[in-house]
Amino acid sequence: MKRALAVILTIAMAFTMASCSIEKLLGGVLEVGDQDPGLKSAEELAETLTNYKMVFEYTTTSESKEKETQTWTEMRCDQGYMSAPGDSTQIIFVEYGTGQYYLLDSETKTGEVITLSSTEEDIYKTFGAGLSVLLFNSVFTGVNTFKKAGTEKIAGRNTTVYTLKLLVEYKLWVDEQLGMAMKSSWSVPGEGSVTTEIKELKVGGVKLSDMVKLTDYEIRDLNEEYP
Known about the structure:
By secondary structure, the protein is of the alpha+beta class. The chain has a single domain, classed as outer membrane lipoprotein receptor (LolB), chain A. The chain contains five helices and twelve strands. The chain has helices spanning about 1-15, 20-25, 40-50, 120, 220-225, and strands at about 50-60, 65-75, 80-85, 90-95, 100-105, 110-115, 145-155, 155-165, 170-175, 180-190, 190-205, 220. It has a twelve-stranded mixed sheet. The longest helix is centred in the N-terminal third of the chain and has 15 residues, at about 1-15.
């Protein structure tokens, strides 16, 4: 199923670029409009979201309607980064400047630390470098073939809903203030769907102390064991 979805998604994206001629070919399969959702590029979002806390869900639905949902929390400020999956006790915490990378267990209150190189540390310094990469819909930046389909609040924020139907059906809930999809889904009739939704979002005001309290953990220093 996943292979089939990937192939169809690739084909459908190519169709977006030539909607006029494809419409004659596909007939009722293709439903396009003339609206640009106003999505920012990945680079623009990285510049905007430098301090935030977000909780988001990633849900896949199979052709048999079976659902699998994963939840993550991600936080970032000018001093560090934290990521934690909701179905696990594992926490990743990176302290900027020192390059300290912690892998912690919130249940046993134990963990390990190793020092990253400056290049490795930089990987964790921008939005989308971690799990938030799942929120990028930059492939649709500048695409003006969507239809408006109303408004809806997602995580307490106002969004405009946009739809685009090719071989794959796309739906975006766009926060026009941020230029980001607070929720997005794509589905293939009879195959399944993928939905990503931000359940909680705080922009600004996040501090390093909000992420994790290291003094609560017994931490093994791998730098000493593997100098």
